[in-house]
């Protein structure tokens, strides 16, 4: 339940605080005093959207703090709305998103205003009313239906997409085949382009390479005084005298090592020289191959790896195109099977809805009788849709006859403002029994009613308040008299501004307020006496 709300700089409210109690909390006040603004502040605290227009003129921000109890735990909510448009939500001191706040607060309170009454006139909302009445039975069936509907939609979408691509696929078929054959014919291998570049560079400079190797080899091995011969002579001379001194032995070994290493080097130069075979044809072939790869890069990717990846993609598409008939047949079968399951789920859901609707209709009719619809007859009508939609195959509409002998008609064609308010109250009394929402808020649910009917509505609100905390805005003394706690909202004008204040009324003050509702601002002994009689009479009829 809601225990307390503090409102600062919100619309025409500068600062006000309200402590709400269990049972039926009545809120009254003159038209334009700000009653609906208080409800709007509660709505914002519970997670509705806000903008900077809510900030009181001249203030930097509006602040709403609401405290209450949910599942036996204290809950504190703070909403800040700045004039600059910044919006902050805090739940028990923690910053939360508006969605998180909504998810929590929908379990705390349910607000019903004139808009809700209008929504009852829309037949599209009636199916949700039926589903919520026996949620423990219908919810699992609805979940199964939603899953089946989602699968059917997915398979149907895949089939439609495939059919839509049929003509394009025929155009792509030859083109993809050409591209695949062109890439396959090239017989590419990863890194081949880099190897070719290096080979071309070698071939283009082979003459220079050969000349350099040839010069080095000739200096080492050719001529009367070749390098190797001279080094051999020198080595032999050192070896002949090395025995005479230790340092000569070390130098001889180093000299010998150099000589043998040069011998190996000379052999390597000879082998390379003999292997160099340069032909213009080989160079032309390498250049042509690299040009081929470069052309493929321009078409299919910036690297050989990308070209091969593209080839794999079109190969997969080709496979799908070439297997179009098979894939189409598979999807058609999937669509057929998923629709059969969907239809089965829709049938089960429809039957559960009809069972729920029959019980709901009987319950609402009994409540309507308590609300002075003594001859009312209510039926929840079912029609079968031509197609299965997101809500199933059911078209649900509440039909009502308010007078004996009159035919059943849609609510929108027969219900006045007062009648629709009572119907909403009857529905909320029933559905409220099956939910765990502790607080119900009614904003002018008494619109369009008066007299005896108003007294009946007041007693019904008090009855609901035995199981729920009720906060109710009303203009009617008959409903105000049914309250357990009474608040008055009034507007005061300062020098340059207007202020709205909420006052909790004592017993005597509540009598005066009900007297005001009965006779206007001029409270007399007669109107006070009438107010007292109304209070006493209402208490006796509870």
Please tell me about this protein's structure.
The protein is built from 19 helices and 15 strands. 58% of the residues lie in helices and 19% in strands. Helix 4 packs across helix 13, helix 5 packs antiparallel against helix 13 and helix 9 packs antiparallel against helix 10. The chain is elongated, with a radius of gyration of 46 Å. The longest helix has 47 residues. The strands form 3 sheets. The protein has a 6-stranded antiparallel beta sheet, covered by helices on one side. The chain has 542 residues and is of the alpha/beta class.
Short description:
Helix 4 packs across helix 13, helix 13 (324-370) packs across helix 15 and helix 18 packs across helix 19 (525-541). Strands 2-1-4-5-6-7 form a six-stranded antiparallel beta sheet, covered by helices on one side. A six-stranded mixed beta sheet has the order 8-12-13-3-14-15.
Question: What key attributes describe this structure?
Answer:
542 residues, alpha/beta, Rossmann fold, six-stranded antiparallel β-sheet, six-stranded mixed β-sheet, 15 strands
How are the SSEs placed, and which strands pair?
Blueprint: E1 2-10, E2 13-19, E3 24-29, H1 35-45, E4 61-70, E5 73-82, E6 87-91, E7 94-95, H2 98-105, E8 109-112, H3 114-120, H4 126-133, H5 135-164, H6 166-186, H7 192-204, H8 206-221, H9 227-241, H10 246-275, H11 280-300, H12 304-322, H13 324-370, E9 377-389, E10 392-401, E11 409-410, H14 411-414, H15 417-434, E12 439-443, H16 451-464, E13 469-473, H17 477-480, E14 485-493, E15 498-504, H18 507-519, H19 525-541
Helix pairs in contact: 3-15, 4-13, 5-13, 6-12, 7-11, 8-10, 9-10, 11-12, 13-15, 15-16, 18-19
